[in-house]
Write a structure and sequence with these properties.
- With about 300 residues, the protein is an alpha/beta fold.
- The protein folds into 2 domains: about 180 residues, Alpha-Beta Complex (Spore Coat Polysaccharide Biosynthesis Protein SpsA, Chain A), CATH 3.90.550; about 110 residues, no CATH class.
- About 50% of the residues lie in helices and about 20% in strands.
- It has 12 helices and 9 strands.
- α1 links the parallel β1 and β2.
- It is globular, with a radius of gyration of 21 Å.
């Protein structure tokens, strides 16, 4: 491309050959065509590079680097970005064709908004729709100048680098607004990062939010935060992470550290684990019912529109 694109989409990938073609093609098929896709191959050893180089569309640019992890791959991609608006997607997720046209129009109509995001469908490894989500930041578009105010993606918070960035962006650059309609398919499967490192993510997330509270970016009840992350780690019987959470509370000098340790010991017992599992199951079922209703409502509206 010789002209400066309006939108830059970074697509970091590590051994993503299974799904990367679907992801790339969903970017190239956007109804808003003035965009570039910067694929950052983060040390892949599978067929990812061959797949990406099979495309002749000049809007797709490829950057190869040694494996450094997602935050550094994102920063590398955005250092090459030329657009006025930024986004990024994983190598296993899929945009609907109107996604960027809709988000761009929203940002142009709302100049005080730093980032627009949309609802999404959750799909499984085979592409089957299994749920609906209206509370995550996965399909989004934000202003390049807002990204400059937020700063880079931080490698010290892997697995939650996106949450960290978005919270800092909202704090320093302006509102994040949601478009209440799905324009994205978010894939959940056993080999995804979020599935493989559920336990570890609890500790990293805890440290992130403590950091953001200390910086004045967030205002949270830290005791509730520690309890929540400990309970989730306990659900998976991740005793190493549970111990690390208690140790972190002691390092931080939290006034509830001794109570937290006692609670951790309780959660390691059979009765404590069962009670914790029941509490989480009740909350999860309530959320599942809500998401099922949203999915039913969306599919019903779609069927009416197509009739």
């Amino acid at each position: 491309m010789t002209t400066t694109p309006t939108i830059s989409i970074v697509l970091p990938t590590f051994n993503g050959a299974t799904y990367v073609r679907e992801s790339v093609e969903s970017c190239l098929a956007q109804t808003f065509e003035d965009l570039e896709i910067i694929a950052v191959i983060d040390g892949s050893t599978d067929e990812t590079e061959q797949i990406l180089r099979s495309y002749s569309d000049p809007r797709l640019r490829i950057h190869f680097q040694a494996n450094q992890g997602l935050p550094d791959a994102l920063n590398a991609g955005f250092s090459l970005a030329r657009g006025r608006f930024f986004s990024w997607t994983s190598d296993d997720n899929i945009y609907f064709p109107q996604a960027f046209a809709v988000m761009l129009r929203y940002l142009e109509e709302h100049p005080a908004t730093a980032m627009a995001c949309t609802d999404l469908f959750v799909i499984d490894g085979s592409g089957k729709t299994v749920s609906y989500s209206d509370n995550v930041w996965a399909c989004f578009l934000y202003r390049a100048e807002a990204a400059a105010l937020a700063g880079p993606y931080r490698s010290e918070f892997p697995l939650v680098e996106d949450i960290d960035f978005f919270l800092r962006l909202r704090h320093s650059a302006g509102a994040i607004d949601r478009i209440k309609h799905p324009y994205y398919k978010y894939r959940q499967h056993k080999s995804s990062l979020s599935s493989r490192y559920i336990g570890k993510r609890q500790l990293v997330s805890l440290k992130l939010h403590c950091d953001l509270v200390a910086r004045g970016v967030e205002q949270l009840d830290l005791k509730d935060l520690f309890w929540d992350r400990l309970s989730t780690a306990a659900l998976y019987r991740d005793y190493q992470t549970m111990n690390a959470i208690v140790d972190f509370a002691r390092e931080q000098g939290q006034p509830f550290k001794d109570v937290l340790q006692a609670h951790s010991c309780l959660l390691k017992t059979r009765s404590g684990w069962l009670w914790n599992r029941l509490e989480i199951a009740v909350k999860s079922q309530r959320d599942k019912l809500r998401r099922s209703y949203l999915l039913f409502r969306t599919e019903h509206v779609r069927s009416v529109e197509e009739a």
